[in-house]
């Protein structure tokens, strides 16, 4: 039983490749013969630089590297492998087995080191070391694969989100990216439309070609036309040189037209023609220039209304919207707020050289309950500002809530309760949101809701599910002064409760929702 | 008394230089021994298999033999340089030994040392052995082990020549210029070794009075 179970592992090891890096041909020939006789697949290179090049291109379970080699010595090779995060296990073979060099090699991540000359005893030790090193390599390889799969659950290219709605977006990108179809990306400002466009480009066969993004709303008509189609020398006053346009420059790649509904009608006509004929003519030019482009467009406008109002040509819409991807607003994927906030926090804390460990309970409550009209961009800016302003190790409500939104000024105007929620759950949501909007002030919450203070505290205790744990007026930093995120990085209970309610909310376009105006 | 003291200083400097040269060559010595050991191990393990043809071991037996020659040459050289030189000193022989030792230390720097010796005439000098060894080894080792990484050396050429009064050793390195190390110059001049600091585009040349 044990023997049968061990067999596949042994087979796997035999298939893992070993790289020998040594400038001594007499040694590498003999050593590779010994290892090949033992059943390993072996490649040989004559210096450290060649070893690095080989390891960048191919995967080797174990590298046997001489400490002294031309171009790149063994320790430098090790350092490069660490810095470039190239997965392999390195065994250093050294003619100078000083304590220093051995310690240095092990500190830099070598699996082991063996002193020359490799007599029969040391060769046997090496033959015994290699399967162990391969075993470690394969375990770590599996860990990397698992980590990558986990990363894939929460990230896609530069996009972040693990909600159902974002996973649907990832699936559509996966399906559409390899095709040449034009894609129209819809979504509110700040939802990440350009990131979707970049992901579509990166996952397509055009990934090696250029990606050209142009904001159609940011440029006056004449400049936009010039940017899109370019001009010939003398096309207009001051055009002393010819200039290729975005279509020409992104040929072989992807062009992304953001805010496409803002284009003037005559540019829309030229654009439609360019899409249909795959040819463009520069301003002042006479010849048609062939272009090989894929067009991605985005808008946050109501396109049906824009078409009805005559602002957008219907034929252009159908040309661009072969596939539509609709990005959810952040408030529609509240379960991603925690992931995004934590990610922005660690990014900006690192950028600003601050040791901030998280958000306190009151900050989390506000983050989870605010309606984020500016979407991810607004969240990102809020966290960056909070990191810069924060003086402690935990971000509190005063750091994260913008001044104009403090003291209950402009908190979420509406609360979404899914059909099917119980009255008790609706009441809990109402208490939670109001509690968050008052920065954790139970007295004010009670006053706003027309409840007694005791009733508010009871609801909050119920939400917190900790008997007797009544949050203070300042919000819920835990006793040790750290934000009460638990060891698994999960949100505090009020936030979790909010997410439970969000999770119960049907997906966009799903079942009917009941919207309750928040009382004040 | 003063002459004895100068000779002692040269001997001391020579031993320090030899120690440095052996230290740098130790990797090559171990590599050679490693080559013998690894290739013999292939021969040994394959020889135990009854179906192994002779061709499967011959290559490794040859390689082991070549590495053994390399190893013994290096060891012989180290032993010879550790003994006192017979006088009058043969500059050609000293040059060959030092080139062999320094060549070993040069391999880690991806460089090689070549010796060119013209004519059959003996290149004997009346100077003491330690002074001759030190005068050649000092600049040779320096030009190989130089820390100037921007100008790496690939080949160092040592040329032996004779004229009416002296035996000349010229050291030429591509990319770097050989020179007498400052710490050795005083003792070697006192011992009778001559050289001139090379002008631009000239190679470094030592002159030993002929015996």
Main beta sheet of chain B, described? 5 strands, mixed
Mean pLDDT of chain A: 80
Q: Please summarize the sheet with the most strands of chain A.
A: 5 strands, parallel
What low-confidence regions of chain B span 5 or more consecutive residues with pLDDT below 50?
none
How much is the average pLDDT of chain B? 85
**Structural class of the helix and strand makeup of chain B?**
alpha+beta
- Characterize the overall form of chain A: flat
Tell me what you see in this structure:
The complex is a heterodimer of chains A (520) and B (211). Chain A has 520 residues and is an alpha/beta fold. Chain A is 47% helix and 14% strand. Chain A has 21 helices and 20 strands. In chain A, β6 and β7 (159-160) form a beta hairpin. The relative contact order of chain A is 0.07. Chain B is α+β, with helices and mostly antiparallel strands. Helix content of chain B is 55%, strand content 16%. Chain B is built from five helices and seven strands, in the order ααβαββαββαββ. In chain B, the strands form two sheets. In chain B, strands 2-4-5-7-6 form a five-stranded mixed sheet, with helices on one face. In chain B, β6 (194-195) and β7 (204-209) form a beta hairpin. The longest helix of chain B is centred in the N-terminal third of the chain and has 46 residues, at 2-47. Chain B is elongated and about 70 Å long. The interface between A and B is medium-sized, with 22 and 27 residues.
